Amino acid sequence: MTDRIADIWGERTPHAKGTVWPARVDLHLDEGVREEDVEAWVPSACVLCSNGCGCDIAVKDGRMVGVRGRATDVVNHGRLGPKGLYGSTPWASSPDRLRRPMVREGGRLVETDWETAMGRVVQESRRLLEENGPLTHGFYTSGQLFLEEYYTLAVIGKAGLGTPHMDGNTRLCTATSAAAFKESFGADGQPGSYTDIEHCDAIFLYGHNMAETQTVLWARILDRTRAEDPPVVVCVDPRRTPVAEEAERTGGVHLAPRVGTNLALMNGLTRELFERGWIDEAWVAAHTIGVDDLRAVVEPYTPEEVAATCGVDAGDLRRAAEIFGTSDNVLSTVLQGFYQSHQATASAVAVHNLHLLRGLIGRPGSGILQMNGQPTAQNNRECGADGDLPGFRNWNNPRHVQELADLWNVDPLTIPHWAPPTNAMQIFGYAEQGSIELLWISATNPAVSMPESARIRRILGSDRCFVVVQDLFLTETAQLADVVLPAAGWGEKTGTFTNVNRTVHLSEKAVEPPGEARSDLDIFLMYARAMGFVDRAGDPLPSWNSPEEAFDAWRAASAGRPVDYTGLSYDKLRGPTGIPWPVDEEAPEGTDRLYTDPVFPTDTDRCETYGHDLVTGAAVTEQEHRAMAPNGRAFLKGAAYTPPHEEPSDDFPLLFTTGRTVYQFHTRTKTGRARSLHEAAPDAWVELSTTDADALGISEGDVVRVESPRGTIEVQARIGQVMPGAVFAPFHYGSWDLDGLAPDQQHRQANELTMTVWDPVSKQPYFKTAACRVTRVRAGDGPAPAPTTAASAPPPARRRAVPPTAGGGPTTSEVLPETPTYPNDPAAGTSHPAPTRTIAGRS
Amino acid sequence: MPHLSTYVGLADHSEKTLADSLRAVAEGHAAEADVFHTCHLLAGWSDAHRERLRPVVERYGEDDSVTEPERLHADGLAEVRAGQVGLLRDLQDLHVLATLVQTTWTVVAQGAQGLRDRELLEIATSANAETSRQLSWLNTRMKAAAPQALIVDPAR
Prior knowledge:
By secondary structure, chain A is of the alpha/beta class.
């Protein structure tokens, strides 16, 4: 019986390079439920991070009572992480689930029926359309809905209403990933695969505390680093995370750049490749354009210059570059430390540049994983409920727009494509100015998750904007709404979603939703029918009514595009594993990695964007793009480092950065309602370095005030392992579980301090570059409520003073003696358990 | 070379006008976070162009006495307009100012070629390229702002 709070990654299954990752099946059931009591196991995939682990939902007496990893799934080979095990099901039967719609009456939200609630939405929507047209409408979605729901909403917004104001919280988590792909390769699409872990010689993790954000993927890496012939790990992170520790253990490097200086570091690494001749000149000449410009851009970034800017050791930088430059196969992964920090897109693109300069792409072990923050973020990018057109189409290409108009049988002018689709920060800006008067928020909680919380609350609470919120609970955002619609969640509805490495899973309905809650798909369709949206033939728009019909419509929309789903169907997805796209006639069983040819979707007529100036965000025009004649070659794009927008000052001498903890997800809507997870990280904290804490007279557990020019929090301090000068706060903690406290009275929400500023290309807000000051308020009543199991641990010398985090409910974990066969796995055919001296590729 | 020195002076002067105007728009529309930060960034580019031009100005002298190009001196934006339509108009004004800067660099580069002045030619060419990037951003931002400003701006 494993306590997976204490043991985050579970039992090791070490195996040799080039062999299939062994299977280990993890299971958790509610207290008192035995495996033989389970009445049905309903196939799905986990939605508590972006990894997308295949799982089966345990059902008993019409309730979800637990989860079990699927041994045959290519993503996780049976494993689940602590969030998935403990957090997947308890929320569903929580007594505070929304069961009926609510409307605002006399300043208060009161329960009502669907007819009344939807009637209000439709009445307001019609009034605004008549008065000012569709640009009065904005939609803010999520990385948590299903593919079918995003695509349906995209059609409603883009063809029914005709508004460009559609985005998701994917803007906060994964926009830079998509933007970086588009800039380098011409279109979105994850080049690499998780199977690269089995074949690489070095792994670079950029701003990616994978040990906490994707625990199962990290277990997959540990199973190589703890075996013979391990890959060397290089970690770029201002905190001493478990990834940083593994970097040291494997003979790699931990580079801790000053917050906001990522691009200077990347330029330094790139310069070293040129300087040391670690370039595949022939490959670069054949498959890329822009190498001379890139060389010129990075020329000033000598190791010494970078050391001065970033506060890293010049020798460490050289060593990291050497590992990249001399390893046969390198895997790179990137996450929020880059995406939510200064010069995000340019830094993420720089990771691509390193791979392109050595031709390390498109073969097992040489991959790039630009990660996502959320389980279904990828589908929002694909389906166009965010700032994209469906099927990775280019809003600037009239033929792409015409394809959509033909699919939907509408006038192409209905589809807003005269400017880039509006990004989330701009949507809230328009709402603030009063030109968006109806804002529909589904499955996300911007009152806690967006930067500069006080401003977001003001916008949502304003009388000028009619706010519709559709969610599982009365979140901090729902409390400010005019209409609240109760939604069915995961396991209570059917649909598909796609993880970071393009693997599509079908998630079947396991139980009925509570009360009158409805699926997001049904809610969107209810609105569309009430509004009477029709196509040119007068037929209902969207033309479908069920998830499977929506999926089939999406397959048609994806045909011939890089994100081709045509070979998939619900029946096919009912097999033993999720399947990675593209799935078409050429690849009927899916595609493990992209760009094996290597031909990139950069052709002017095929690409998703003509690209941008990475410094200003200015759009490249079609003529400029055509003149470059990319014709399937990838772009090498560089940019000079500029200092962050807010630097430390006398008043605010420290740098504030936010992030996650392993036990919570987002605003804790689900994880905060699971006992094991809640107790492991029950309240907010901030982390200070020993140096700064000593200078400020702060001890472990003291209550401190952290202030930025925008707001203040008061929480307990963990004397932790951030770099001196930096202050880390988890962003999960809002006010929904603080009894009797209104959102603006609470004291612990990290985004009170963050600033309204975003990346010029990806438009992703920067959560990691704000100046702050810290003062001691009083002694606390014990250590900070920060976990000790990962990056929030006290430094080794102070660890004894804090009790170790533990106490999760019992789980089981079984290593399978025989490893199943996984489709597309390049190591297929190797035996298991793998003998320690297995030669790569042979058994 | 009275006219070349006049155009060198015009380059210096028009870059200053552009930088000042970019900063005025940045501060005046500070609530638009991207406008605020990008305009400040682009103003810094214009400052840098002037900095690089300084030794050339000293070499040629900055002659304001010749009358013809004087008419080209454009007034900068002393104050900004309010609201979304105001932002659109201000961006349009910046575009006009940047176009003047760009054509000035084009003319200066032609003169520099005639004189085989490599230093000035390099400055004029690289500044011109960055002015193009300033113009591209202004164009991109205007395209994004236009629909909302023209159709649903509440201040209309």
